Amino acid sequence: MGMAKAVLLVTSLSVLGTSAYIWPGPYDLLEDAYTVSGGFADGGIVAGVQPCSVSPFGFLPGRQAAAEWLRVAYHDMATYSTETGLGGLDASIGFETDRAQNIGTAMNTSLLFFGAFQSKTSSMADVIALSVILAVKNCGGPSIPFRAGRIDAETSGPETVPEPQQDLASHTASFALQGFNVTEMIGLVACGHTIGGVHQVDFPETVQNAITPPNPEGMVHFDNSFDSFDNHIATQWIDGTSTDPLAVGFNGTTNSDARIFAADGNATMRAFARDNEYFTSQCGGLLERMLNTVPSTVQLSEVIEPLPVKPHQLMLSLSSNGSLVMSGYIRIFGDSDEAASANAAAMLVKLSWKDRNDQSNTSYFTSAVAVSEPSSSLWGSVRFFQINSLIDAQSGISSFVIDWAFNNQETLTHSDNGGSGFPFQDVALLQADKSCITPSSRPNPTTTVFAVIRMDMGPVSSAYIDYTSNVIQQGSIAVKQVTSRFPLAHVGNSSSPLYDTYNVSFPTGENTNIGVITFDIVAVIAGKTYASLNNPAIITEC
């Protein structure tokens, strides 16, 4: 996957089925990818478009990943019909890349990159939407609100993407079917063409004599600031210096931008040219609508923003001496000047917990230590603090709160996850140090998972692993997430008289190196379900 790095969030729920949207939530991995754009715990999406001019995977000269991501999203959305409520941004583009309207390798290249971030809780369609938001922001464009909940299509949509050789009436009709009027059509095209350009290898009827050794695909940029999200596409069009090959190209038949820009007598383009802030503001709203154009049966989430305080890869395990070990990180985010200037090493971060009977005690706390590797965010400042603490297994843990400050001179801020604390269960726990995977070089590779389950709460009526891996879809570069259930077998006691040990070995399968692999450990005791969710794929070899 080249630069792509998938960072996983390990969470624990006290009881499945809670209705309040608190940590952990259904879009934690997407919120991570949205919030952290570099350094420690970086998921790697922004690296694919940093700087804005970078080519896909960093080694395909003459191409621009940010522009290609924007093209993927629009072409995916363009299948929407206001008449039927079908289509829209649903990742059907993975089944449509062999169509003439989707010519070029950009679609498959982008989807291959996005596959590293596809997971049980992050659909390919959500990743496509997020990619546009991060690319546009990284290129200096507007902040586009992000909503999640898109559902991936399992087949292609209609062939309704506009093509350069079509006339204005056809384009107007296509955009109208997608839900955009003439003014909005002009805006969407201008906003989409403020970065990137046209490739001669894909559109020889539009671009000629552009192929050179450093530009092997013959890319001709839309404007003179192809790596900046600004209004130059409009200013150059209005002042007569445009380089847009779809507006002033040698072949009038494919000059679709010229026809679209002038569709209202250039009124929209003149307004864009006069005011860059107006241009970016209008683009933000139009691109948000584009990304939120989904099948009528899909309900998107509320806007996802960086959580001020969030656990990261925080987990509980049983040590060899019978104590519980809480390990992982706490993330602190802020968008103030104080947050930007804070020294992580001087920040105070304290985690306090309640025992399994929901009782507090002055001894139930630990201090977090700043991670030395810095992190960055497109939206503010983000820092991570490491937790490593022993917890008495008899008293256990049910939830925790975080008290923190940007420096040791100010009053601590109390973060309680919306009022009831951060839920943290001590019933079903992964034993990562004992779990392993047979090397893929061996025939029939398997994953072996060890877990411990608390035995003083009544009989365990059910215990199992829900393992989510990835399978190739016929006709699409995008993978499909598939969850398989494997029962956990009781194999004996543990280092603590309070826990029994369980394990299971199951086939790892093929193609599991694509996308994010996670598994849940679930136990049903006395009618209640407890789970350690979204554990990352086991990588230690047996």
TrEMBL record:
Q: Does the keyword Heme apply?
A: yes
Q: What SUPFAM superfamilies would the database entry show?
A: Heme-dependent peroxidases
Pfam families found in the cross-reference section: peroxidase
The Plant heme peroxidase family profile domain extends over 121-331
The domain of life for this entry's organism is Eukaryota
Instruction: Give the signal sequence positions.
Output: 1-20
Q: A biological process (GO) annotation for this entry?
A: response to reactive oxygen species
Top-level class of the enzyme under EC nomenclature: oxidoreductase
Provide the E.C. number(s) assigned to this enzyme.
Answer: 1.11.1.-
Regarding protein family, the annotation reads: Belongs to the peroxidase family. Cytochrome c peroxidase subfamily.
Q: What does this protein do?
A: Destroys radicals which are normally produced within the cells and which are toxic to biological systems.
Q: What is this protein called?
A: Peroxidase
